[in-house]
Amino acid sequence: MERLRSSLFRVRRSAAPEPVRLRKRKSTLYGKECSDVEQGTGLLGPNTYLIIFSVALRSVNCLLVQTSFVPDEYWQTLEVAHNMVFKYGYLTWEWKERLRGYTYPLIFASFYKLLQIFKKDTVQLLVWVPRLVQSLLAALADVTLYSIAKKQANAEIAKWVYFSQLCSWFTWYCSTRTITNSMEAVLTSFILYYYPLQGTKTGSSSKYLALTAFAFVVRPTAIILWLPLVFIHFWQEVKKLDLLLYKCLPAGCLSLGISLIIDRIFYGEWVMVQWNFLRFNVIQNMGSFYGSHSWHWYFTQGFPVIMGTHLPFFIHGCLLAPKKNRILLLAILWTAIVYSFLSHKEFRFIYPAMPICMVFCGYSLANLKAWKKPAVMFLFLSNMCLILYTGLIHQRGTLDVMQYVQNLCKETMLEKEEPSLFFLMPCHSTPFYSYVHCPIKMHFLECPPDLSGNNTYVDEADLFFKEPLTWLNTRFSAQASLPTHLVLYNILEQNIEPFLKTKNYAKVAIFFHTHVPEGRVGSHIHVFERKKMIIGDSEY
After folding, report:
1. CA distance 318 to 393
2. Residue 146 contacts by C-beta under 8 Å, 6 or more apart in sequence?
3. What is the pLDDT of residues 320-369, one digit of tens each?
4. CA-CA distance, 8 to 251, in Å (whole number)?
5. Where is average pLDDT lowest: 20-24, 330-334, 388-392, 412-416?
6. Which among 336, 469, 530, 538 counts the fewest CB atoms within 10 Å?
7. What pTM was estimated for this model as a whole?
């Protein structure tokens, strides 16, 4: 009996430490030492709270961007989607020449169709739902960028990469806009996550090549950024033939095949818009019709402006980043050089490379010690000023005036005279039917390029601004053809004042647009309404 009691005591003693081991395991599970739980698996991992925060922040970002940037935000996406679903909306010359694909607008057209089915297609939802969809994609890209830095470096660097991304004024300005460049920037983060960068084990050739092919479908010039990275991957790959036959070809054929089918449905014929786009913009360099800049513009103006106060941290980060990141730096440099050979240059063209730039900014901030807090405050405050000004003030008039047009449409529904508008502004200055959602008569000064090679060609907008008063008197010589409303920048008013008086137009609305008017763009937008004259018992 005594022997049994002693054996039971030994069993209890051997089992006693077990709860201690369990407690230790539990603390490790919820602490920083548990790499499996912290890193997780998949594109976004277990970053639930980070995703929620990013989605909330980008939604606020969407609501705080109430200004216009470039016409493509409306004319190449929302206007096309509106035409796809509601069967009215203006298609620009690019669509008539088969230079644009329907794949990206189809995303927004799908949401338009759902709103139509459930009879919720109000103009407010048609304006904001696409922006919120783009905001969600941008938020997921932010989290993905954090995951990239975490798997390539560590959580500390990932934190500062994420901060740099959220703090960037140009990312805030563009990420929620419905332009193909914003979608390119989103895809940059997704592709980079799966890219088999040297020293990482989570790359996936199939996935990154499929996403690259999709980026090419959305905007064919996306190939410029990814061409050196794909080439380096192919050069380092041992089984080159397998990579080409079983990964590159299937990804490319599937993406192009889907694009061909979508464009066949909406164009009514087989067409490869990607080739047409590259031929027009890159090979023929016809984009110069819309303006040209000096070869060094991206290095002296474009890149410094979009980077803003992030620029010194980017340069510092390039010096600190490990050697495996040099190919990312090469991709950025290659993109800027290739675009420099094209005459027509815009800030948004190199925006898709910005997520890669934020990786280098993160390395810089993570390695600062005594200067870290001042640097963080400097970045936050300097970018916040630009974020608020460009998002809420600069170039907002072209959107505000469309709300006035919406109200004119409501008056039409109340059985008043149907309005007709003419926008005497640089072509595509404002959104169109996608921001009105009412089939009233609207016209604007058109500016398609001449594709026939005629050196004497002058578009309608240039003809108007050359002699605006003469053009108006010629165009509206018949009294019955006069529009009920004219929309124009304030700098034009003095030039056409005789026409406004003789045709009995009166100013009915003024909208602020910008503090820095330039060229044909004024500081305010004026709306004139034609008042009827009563002579005897008749109205004129």
Report:
1. 34
2. 47, 50, 158, 159, 161, 162, 165
3. 989 889 999 999 999 999 999 988 899 999 999 999 999 999 999 999 98
4. 66
5. 20-24
6. 538
7. 0.87
| Both tokens assigned to 79 | 């206007």
d(C-alpha 330, C-alpha 353), whole Å: 11
Give CB contacts under 8 A, 24+ apart, made by 254-262: 254/210, 254/213, 255/210, 255/213, 255/214, 255/216, 255/217, 256/213, 256/217, 258/103, 258/217, 259/101, 259/103, 259/217, 262/101, 262/102, 262/103, 262/106
> 441 - beta bridge partners?
420
CB of 404 within 8 A of CB of 527? yes
- Distance from C-alpha of 121 to C-alpha of 86, rounded to nearest angstrom: 10
In sequence order, what are the residues at sequence separation of 6 or more whose Cβ sits closer than 8 angstroms to the Cβ of residue 23? none
What span, in angstroms and rounded, lies between the C-alpha atoms of 372 and 362? 12
CA distance 184 to 154: 26
Q: Count the helices and strands in the chain (H runs, E runs).
A: 28, 7
Lowest-confidence pick of 20-29, 155-164, 306-315: 20-29
Q: Containing H/E element for 229?
A: helix 222-236
Hey, what's the torsion of the CAs at 446, 447, 452, 454, to 10 degrees? 110
What's the DSSP call for residue 248?
I
Cα torsion 264, 266, 267, 269 to 10°: value is 30
Give the C-alpha separation, 74 to 67, whole Å: 12
Query: What would the mean pLDDT of 259-266 be, rounded to a whole number?
Result: 96
How far is it, in rounded angstroms, from Cα 153 to Cα 438? Answer: 53
H or E stretch including 485? strand 485-489
- Selection from 286, 298, 309 nearest residue 349 by Cα: 298
33, exposed or middle or buried, with CB in 10 Å at 0-12, 13-18, 19+? exposed
Instruction: Give Cβ neighbours of residue 353 (< 8 Å, ≥ 6 apart).
Output: 188, 225, 331, 332, 335, 336
* Rounded distance between C-alpha atoms, residue 358 and residue 95, angstroms: 35
Q: Which of 204, 208, 199 is nearest to 153 (CA)?
A: 199
How confident is the model over 241-254, as pLDDT tens digits?
Answer: 999 999 999 999 99
DSSP state of 317: H
